[in-house]
């Protein structure tokens, strides 16, 4: 059992204790929080508009080894002795990783030919699990005690762990960004508009507390909604823009708590009809429930949803990918890299990667998923290899490559990550990209080619090219298609996948530039009166009946079927900043700012131009609010975006992992396409 006790010094605020038991490989398995009813749920303390973080005092017992020893900086000779440890971060994460082998591509380049682009076959036996056992799974219990400080030392303690506690009117602590490449200290903060003040108040009102600490934000907080369904839960994907808004404002505790609590939930047993998915699966959402006990006491319990209660019972593939992306962002912005170096966090990353990199029947490096496994969580014809999942997968792999501790136990996993990154980037750039030249090439495709040197590798029939695309594609610009499978190309434009391809450098610099050129050229279609379309165009008539199953929520130009989602603003802003197109982001944010507050912050908008509030749209949608605020903060200080972006990795692209010789019966296709994938 692992016991953690949190002791705080607020008047009338009860002590809080987590009681956790392990059910599987996860460090934590079950969580409860006991209180007395004389308290006021301690929730009122959350709405102070400021969060602070404090050092942890840890009493260590037993024979924790290697990585645990390094993370807590304990002398080897004394390790395993019961002792009191004060934990503080090392500082800048990138600098530390540079000294311990952050870039491992070169060291593995000579060995990669003997490995597939997924974790070796041994990943499914106990040898792979031994990676985790050797990195701290077998550690005896830790008792973690968290003690609040007086208010006059909060700022001092918070600064020691890299999280700013801003004063009134202050933006981001200069200490957090000083010395970070590409980041400048912002000047005096401009006066916030009334809309921004309202948005910050709404975002703070959406905060969910667990045992007196903030752990996330609800999906929507509409006081007039009598049937919230699951909109009163904390969703991993929905919380990401909220987390970034808090981090950019200097409030880090809520993000740290969220990352650790969702990590605990990863190890919970997940069963649907007597079948359990992989151990690395992250929940789609969780809810803090209050359970009455005997007498006048109660307990708070985290209740996760791994898809067992979701519409369609679909596992949230993107949750783990978003979690890894947010973990990197937390370290980059706060400078607190001790979180990502913790034994349990390292194991959580490995479990997610294990789930994604396991060998299967697929011939492609892209992830194969079912319909509804990401932001588009209803039937919309995206089963197979949807771009959104591939872009998030690529981003998560690049994040993991930065954060994984390289040692004998993780060496094979790091090699598999590098191999998959190389293969995935080539696959997406070569086969998902379309512009007017490529469409004309597809239009002239020959079919039924049985050859190693076939041009039409996926046997795409030219008749699949829809008539709307012939007229719609601009002379300058292009995009990555929504999906690719044998004899099938989904030629719809999916905004999130294309934006993340720009942000993560999954696309080439030339392709990234062309994506924004296309958005600019087709502004009325993709942005219209409210940014941004989740996909374009909508599927209609017979296609709608067949593909969606006549879904009454996904009618044409509504919800996931061509609806406009303001939360995509922050991702659009990041992409524009990266490509030097700040004016496009400013134009989109200004457009949204005119309507969002007046319309009470809807979840989505309907019609071809986004003219009307969505027919089933929740109001006061949290990620709409957070997406707007994050965009405003980034536009105010664009250089902060450098900590959330990835640049082109030419070293990675040069690695070929297929093992095919130039003179053999089969030849590697990368050589012929290298001129394209490197531009």
From TrEMBL:
GO BP field: carbohydrate metabolic process
Highest taxon of the lineage: Eukaryota
Keyword Hydrolase: yes
Pfam families reported for this sequence: Glyco_hydro_100
SUPFAM superfamilies referenced in this protein's UniProt entry, alphabetically: Six-hairpin glycosidases (SSF48208)
InterPro entries, per the entry: 6-hairpin_glycosidase_sf (IPR008928), 6hp_glycosidase-like_sf (IPR012341), Glyco_hydro_100 (IPR024746)
Signal peptide feature range: none
Catalytic activity as recorded in UniProt: Hydrolysis of terminal non-reducing beta-D-fructofuranoside residues in beta-D-fructofuranosides
Enzyme Commission number(s): 3.2.1.26
Record bears the keyword Transmembrane helix: no
Keyword line: Carbohydrate metabolism, Glycosidase, Hydrolase
GO molecular function, one term: beta-fructofuranosidase activity
Family per similarity comment: Belongs to the glycosyl hydrolase 100 family.
Job description of the protein: Invertase that cleaves sucrose into glucose and fructose.
PANTHER family: ALKALINE_NEUTRAL INVERTASE A, MITOCHONDRIAL, PTHR31916
Protein name in the entry: Alkaline/neutral invertase
Phylogenetic lineage: Eukaryota, Viridiplantae, Streptophyta, Embryophyta, Tracheophyta
């Amino acid at each position: 059992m692992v016991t953690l006790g949190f002791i705080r010094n607020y008047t009338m605020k009860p002590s809080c204790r987590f009681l956790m038991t392990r059910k599987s490989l996860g460090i934590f398995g079950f969580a409860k929080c006991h209180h007395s009813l004389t308290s006021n749920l301690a929730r009122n303390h959350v709405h102070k508009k400021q969060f602070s973080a404090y050092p942890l005092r840890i009493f260590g017992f037993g024979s924790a080894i290697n990585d645990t020893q390094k993370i807590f900086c304990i002398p080897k000779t004394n390790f395993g002795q019961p002792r009191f440890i004060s934990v503080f971060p090392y500082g800048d994460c990138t600098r530390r990783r540079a000294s311990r082998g952050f870039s491992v591509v070169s060291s593995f380049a000579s060995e990669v030919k003997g490995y597939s682009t997924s974790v070796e076959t041994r990943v499914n036996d106990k040898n792979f699990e031994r990676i985790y056992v050797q990195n701290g799974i077998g550690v005896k219990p830790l008792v973690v005690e968290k003690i609040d400080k007086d208010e006059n030392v909060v700022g001092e303690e918070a600064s020691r762990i890299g999280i700013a506690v801003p004063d009134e009117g202050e933006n981001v602590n200069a200490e957090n960004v000083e010395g970070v490449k590409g980041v400048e200290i912002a000047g005096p903060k401009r006066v916030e508009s009334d809309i921004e003040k309202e948005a910050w108040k709404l975002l703070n009102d959406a905060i969910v507390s667990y045992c007196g600490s903030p752990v996330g934000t609800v999906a929507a907080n509409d006081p007039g909604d009598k049937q919230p369904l699951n909109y009163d839960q904390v969703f991993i994907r929905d919380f990401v823009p909220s987390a970034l808004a808090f981090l950019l404002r200097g409030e880090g505790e809520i993000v740290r708590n969220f990352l650790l609590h969702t990590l605990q939930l990863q190890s919970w047993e997940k069963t649907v009809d007597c079948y359990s998915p992989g151990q690395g699966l992250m929940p789609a959402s969780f809810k803090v429930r209050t359970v009455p006990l005997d007498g006048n006491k109660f307990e708070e319990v985290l209740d996760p949803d791994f898809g067992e209660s979701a519409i369609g019972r679909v596992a949230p593939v993107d949750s783990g990918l978003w979690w890894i992306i947010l973990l990197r962002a937390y370290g980059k912005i706060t400078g607190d890299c001790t979180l990502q170096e913790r034994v349990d966090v390292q194991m959580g990353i490995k479990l997610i990667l294990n789930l994604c990199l396991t060998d299967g029947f697929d011939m492609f490096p892209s992830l194969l998923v079912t319909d509804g496994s990401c932001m588009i969580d209803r039937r919309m014809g995206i089963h197979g290899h949807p771009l959104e999942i591939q872009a998030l997968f690529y981003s998560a792999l690049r994040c993991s490559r930065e954060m994984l501790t390289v040692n004998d136990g993780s060496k094979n996993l790091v090699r598999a990550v590098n191999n998959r990154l190389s293969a995935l980037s080539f696959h997406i750039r070569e086969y998902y990209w379309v512009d007017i030249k490529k469409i004309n090439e597809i239009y002239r495709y020959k079919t039924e080619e049985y050859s190693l040197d076939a041009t039409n590798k996926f046997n795409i029939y030219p008749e699949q090219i829809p008539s709307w695309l012939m007229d719609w594609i601009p002379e300058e610009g292009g995009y990555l298609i929504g999906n690719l499978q044998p004899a099938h190309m989904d030629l719809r434009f999916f905004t999130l996948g294309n934006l993340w391809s720009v942000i993560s450098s999954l696309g080439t610099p030339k392709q990234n530039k062309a994506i924004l050129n296309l958005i600019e050229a087709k502004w009325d279609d993709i942005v219209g009166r409210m940014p941004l379309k989740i996909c374009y165009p909508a599927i209609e008539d017979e296609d709608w009946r067949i593909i969606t199953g006549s879904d009454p929520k996904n009618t044409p130009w509504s919800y996931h079927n061509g609806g406009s989602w303001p939360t995509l603003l922050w991702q659009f802003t990041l992409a524009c900043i990266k490509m030097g197109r700040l004016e496009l982001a400013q134009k989109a944010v200004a457009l949204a700012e005119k309507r969002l507050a007046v319309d009470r912050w809807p979840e989505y908008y309907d019609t071809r131009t986004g003219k009307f509030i969505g027919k089933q749209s929740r109001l006061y949608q949290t990620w709409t609010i957070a997406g707007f605020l994050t965009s405003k903060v980034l536009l105010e200080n664009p250089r902060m975006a450098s900590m959330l972006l990835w640049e082109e990795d030419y070293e990675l692209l040069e690695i070929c992992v297929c093992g095919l010789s130039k003179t053999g019966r089969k030849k590697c296709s990368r050589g012929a396409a290298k001129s394209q994938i490197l531009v």
